[in-house]
């Protein structure tokens, strides 16, 4: 993840992401992409990850959900992926709104 993408996720986390959850037990990161957290840590859910980003782990039902799903989250200033079975979701997750960002500001022609 490059610095620009990390900055976008951090700003999205500051706005609350698509939901919140609490860690049900300690989870040690097994790869650089994983999120490490301790029991009772608050995690902001940023997005649900498609199955093909999980290196063959988990279920084979497309996009995972709930216990079997993988998510991108933010905890203690770190962005990383985690499994839904390691957390308790506070409520149903919001549907993400996908927008394409323009790298240049739009300009209006003078009238």
Automatic annotation (TrEMBL):
Gene3D superfamilies found in the cross-reference section: SH3 Domains
SH3 domain sequence ranges: 16-92
InterPro entries noted in UniProt: SH3-like_dom_sf, SH3_domain
Keyword presence, Transmembrane: no
Domain of life where this protein originates: Eukaryota
Pfam families with a match to the protein in the record: SH3_2
UniProtKB keywords: SH3 domain
Keyword GTP-binding: no
Protein name as it appears in the record: SH3 domain-containing protein
Organism: Pleurotus ostreatus (strain PC15)
């Amino acid at each position: 993840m490059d610095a620009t993408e990390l900055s976008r996720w951090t700003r999205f986390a500051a706005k609350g992401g698509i939901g919140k959850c609490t860690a049900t037990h300690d989870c040690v990161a097994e790869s650089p992409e994983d999120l490490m957290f301790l029991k009772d840590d608050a995690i902001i859910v940023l997005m649900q990850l498609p199955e093909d980003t999980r290196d063959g782990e988990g279920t084979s039902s497309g996009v995972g959900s709930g216990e079997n799903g993988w998510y991108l989250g933010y905890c203690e200033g770190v962005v990383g992926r985690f499994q839904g079975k390691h957390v308790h979701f506070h409520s149903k997750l919001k549907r993400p709104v996908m927008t394409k960002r323009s790298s240049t500001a739009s300009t209006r022609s003078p009238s």
